[in-house]
Write a structure and sequence with these properties.
By secondary structure, the protein is α/β, with parallel strands linked by helices. The protein has a single domain, classed as Ribonuclease Z/Hydroxyacylglutathione hydrolase-like (Metallo-beta-lactamase, Chain A). The protein has seven helices and 14 strands. Helix 6 links the parallel strand 11 and strand 12.
């Protein structure tokens, strides 16, 4: 599906965590802009949700990773393996994989285990490392990607995607409270922000609803989507907690939720 060049379309592929759930796959987001389909993170359940959203793996031209934890990278090897079926001829467009520094080593370690099973034909796979010590960015045909370091793992980065028409989406990945996320999200049309645990169960390396709301309010985002919910979030009023700090448009992510900007 090709969108108007000035539109961005977002699909939440997974709104959950490492905890198995029939309702929530591991955290993953799909963005369609112009002729490009971008996927962010690919934990357990991502490829199934991708099919349910109406897209095939061969149509995805970019996969960006926020960090290397299994619930965000677990289906990378499976994704690449599936692109070779039945004889390596199904993928027609190049695939770019991007992440913070250390991703090349991460990928080489995967190849040591899986070998040619995750290698695509020459010219079909590009790997990009973003500088996760400071801001970074690249311009592609249909969009611009910008990154800043997040507070989670050494390689953790958040992403800002800006379409050719100027619409913008920010994906936080996993992070604790950081001014970098406010900076990255400044005046963005949409912030997809992790909110892993309720306020009273705050853990290091993750945000809560009120902290995510504070970042969204400071950044003056057009709309906030909370995601990456652990089961404890199902037992509290997440929206009410977020409203302590944020009064703007708010969505609580569900798998296969669609948002057009």
């Amino acid at each position: 599906m090709r969108l108007n060049s000035d539109k961005l379309s977002v699909t939440i592929l997974g709104s959950g965590t490492c905890v198995p759930s029939l309702e929530r796959s591991s955290c993953s987001v799909l963005i369609r802009t112009g002729g490009s389909i971008l996927m962010f993170d690919s934990g357990a359940g991502t490829m199934r949700r991708l099919l349910e959203s109406g897209s095939e793996i061969y149509e995805v031209s970019f996969v960006f990773y926020s960090h290397f934890h299994p619930d965000h990278t677990g289906e990378l090897a499976s994704f690449l393996f599936s692109n070779k079926y039945p004889d390596g001829s199904r993928r027609r467009i190049p695939l770019t994989l991007g992440a913070g520094r250390g991703f090349l080593e991460f990928f080489e370690n995967l190849k040591r285990n899986y070998g040619h099973w995750i290698e695509l034909d020459p010219g079909l796979l590009n790997i990009v490392e973003f500088d996760n010590t400071q801001g970074d960015g690249r311009q592609y045909d249909d969009f611009r990607v910008e990154t800043l370091p997040m507070e989670h793992n050494p390689e953790s980065i958040g992403y800002r995607i800006t379409g050719s028409g100027g619409a913008s989406v920010v994906y936080s990945g996993d992070t604790d409270f950081t001014d970098n996320l406010t900076t990255l999200s400044k005046d963005a049309d949409l912030l997809i922000c992790e909110s892993a645990m309720p306020d009273e169960l705050k853990v290091k390396g993750h945000l809560t609803p009120s902290l995510a709301g504070e970042i969204a309010a400071r950044a003056n985002v057009g709309k906030l989507v909370l995601t990456h919910f652990y089961p404890e979030c199902d037992r509290v009023d997440i929206e009410r907690e977020c409203r302590k700090t944020y009064a703007g448009p708010l969505l609580l992510a569900e798998d296969l939720m669609e948002i057009e900007i």
